[in-house]
Amino acid sequence: MSRPIGIPVWKKAPFTRLLIPLIAGIMLQWYFQISITFIASALISFCIAFFLFLLLPIALRFTLKPLQGFIIQLVFIALGSLLTWQKDIRHDNNWYGNHYRDSIYLVVRIDEPLTEKNRSFKAEGYVESIIEKGKNIPGKGKLLLYFSKDSFQNDLHYGDRILIHKNIQRIKNSGNPGAFDYERYAAFRGLFHQVFLKQNDRVVIDRENINPFRQFIFSAREKVLAVLRNNILTGKDELGIAEALLIGYTEDLDKDLVQAYSNTGVVHIIAISGMHLGLIYVLLVWIFTRIPFVKRSKTLQLVLILGCLWLFAILTGASPSVLRAAVMFSFIAIGKNFFKQASVYNSLAASAFVLLCFNPYYLWAVGFQLSYLAVLGIVIFQKPFYHCFYVKNKLLNKVWELICISTAAQLLTFPVCTYYFHQFPNLFLFTNLVAVPLSTIILYAALALAAFSWIPAVGIYLGKLTGWLTGCMNTFILWVNDLSFAVWDKIQATVFSTCLLYALVFACSAWLT
Fold first, then answer.
1. pTM score, two decimals?
2. Phi, then psi, of 413 in degrees rounded to 5
3. Cα separation, 16 vs 28, whole angstroms
4. In b/e form, how buried is each residue of 185-216, taking b as 16+ CB within 10 angstroms?
5. Which residues are within 8 A (CB) of 480 and not within 5 positions of it... i.e. 6 or more apart?
6. N or C: fewer beta carbons within 10 Å in the chain?
7. What residues contact 497, with CB distance under 8 A and at least 6 apart?
8. What is the pLDDT of residues 329-379, one digit of tens each?
9. How many CA atoms lie within 13 A of 219 on its CB side?
10. Half-sphere exposure of 353 toward its Cβ, with a 13 Å CA cutoff?
């Protein structure tokens, strides 16, 4: 009997062969800051080489096929470098940082609703123009705005344009060794400066200069938050978790409670991720396949599912992990609509490729990395783990399935988690067995509350139910967190040790399978 022929992953998932050189180009540009002249010259040269290769005789092309693949790799390395260079606002001639002087005025548009902090109100601003000696110079670029509480009169809103005249400060790290690199984090978001303003440091020159779509998103978020705050009256912690679980709003979360969720390995519950979008996707499919005039048209179902899915993704803040899930579920939904079953690896690689073309700096986002590693771990390891034991009882089989999923996801994420957070949740299996099903019920209850709160009795009871379930989950998490062996912390990890850890994981996995 002949052995079955195994198809390599890179052939089942051709997008991986495009994604790897793209990532290489992004990293090359960020760490070496190559000039645009060299990048453009290289890209043009590689493209010309590719088209010249196509002019060769067919027999010679077949013989030199590896060379064609190598040229394509070089094209995408150059493309990754070009996208990274283009995304850096500092290379734009109109970036305000290229023209800034202490004597100039900045015309800044407030680009989001103000968020209250301990001693100030915070918002992102966008520099529209620079005024120097009576001349109006076009400007570009984002700026962090802090408004002092001492002199704040609650007269600023999203869309207002203000004139400021105060020295801006460059965003810097705290200086503590091993601390979070906030300067790089801000740079990846296009933020390089911040300014602290009192009442006399700014003047409102125009109001309601708003983007209608963004205003709709902000208004929708405020309405959802108002519904939760009016109906969940059991406590501040319950409200904060419900807000984070439903739309990713984290301003009302208690820091000690967040740390408890992190210590017990279930922080992914309160950080909107692929799990939440997956639950929303399942719910949308269930709803739209039961509405009479919708279920007859698969194209209409697809449009409605994708529309609702992306609206939810944007409503929650469109973090890299959410965008990854939204793009991947979009590919899956489109594939099913056209009766095509694509490789999961290819869908993952394609979604990552699209997102990195949109914003190359997602590559360094912790949520982006953990999201892809968790899904990849589930795809690779969940089935082998599950088939190790046969469980006849349906309930126990579901428990075993959840254990396999949690273990598979943790297997590829824990090296990165130890590198970034220097800790490992020893009881993640136990906490996930309780918290994941419970958080699923809470999410659906919160969605029902947001949808039917206009019915007074329904809103009251759903609010009580959501608050009570959230309280039960918080109590359980805090109880586990108080166990002395719940977390292994202060783990020293470097890039080299993390790579060694991944090598060990894959070596052991290959041996076991």
1. 0.87
2. -100, -25
3. 18
4. bbbbebbbbbbbbeeebbeeeeeeebeeeeee
5. 264, 427, 430, 431, 486
6. N
7. 419
8. 787 777 767 656 667 788 888 888 998 999 999 999 888 888 889 888 888
9. 8
10. 20
